[in-house]
TrEMBL record:
Family annotation (InterPro entries): THAP1/10, THAP_Znf
Family label: Belongs to the THAP1 family.
The entry's keywords: Cell cycle, Coiled coil, DNA-binding, Metal-binding, Nucleus, Transcription, Transcription regulation, Zinc, Zinc-finger
Pfam family, one: THAP
Domain (THAP-type) ranges: 1-94
Top-rank taxon: Eukaryota
Protein name, as recorded: THAP domain-containing protein 1
A Gene Ontology cellular-component term: nucleoplasm
Compartment list: Nucleus, Nucleoplasm
Organism: Seriola lalandi dorsalis
Length: 119
């Protein structure tokens, strides 16, 4: 397996083997419009979204690690090694953005049966 590096500037995540890191490394989407959105989002000065094509992202081996996707960007809301991205997901967590508080979905009280006992 080739060594994979995250293409986000300032991210030092590298994968040397499938089990060497907890992050998953996502290839850029084959949809040209979505690929351009990813390129704009990661702000890598080496790759201009106006001229970089999907083929160029594959030739250069560009990848974005799972640290730059929210839990809700994954099918089932779980961000782990085996999780798949939802269609249309765009990386949005970067060193230059404000950290979002990510909450894991919970059941609200209205959805739970609550038993109240009076003494």
């Amino acid at each position: 397996m080739q060594r994979s590096m995250c293409s986000v500037p300032g991210c030092g995540n590298v994968r040397t083997s499938r089990l060497s890191t907890p992050q998953k490394f996502h290839v850029f989407p084959s949809n040209p419009v979505l690929c351009c959105e990813w390129l704009e989002a990661i702000k890598n000065s080496r790759f201009d979204p106006k001229v970089t094509t999907v083929l160029m992202t594959r030739i250069h081996g560009l990848r974005v690690c799972s640290d730059h996707f929210r839990h809700q960007d994954y099918i089932g809301g779980q961000r782990n090694y085996y999780a798949a991205l939802k269609r249309g997901a765009v990386p949005s967590l970067f060193p230059w953005t404000e950290p979002e508080s990510e909450t894991v979905p919970t059941t609200s009280l209205s959805q739970q049966q609550v038993t109240v006992s009076w003494l």
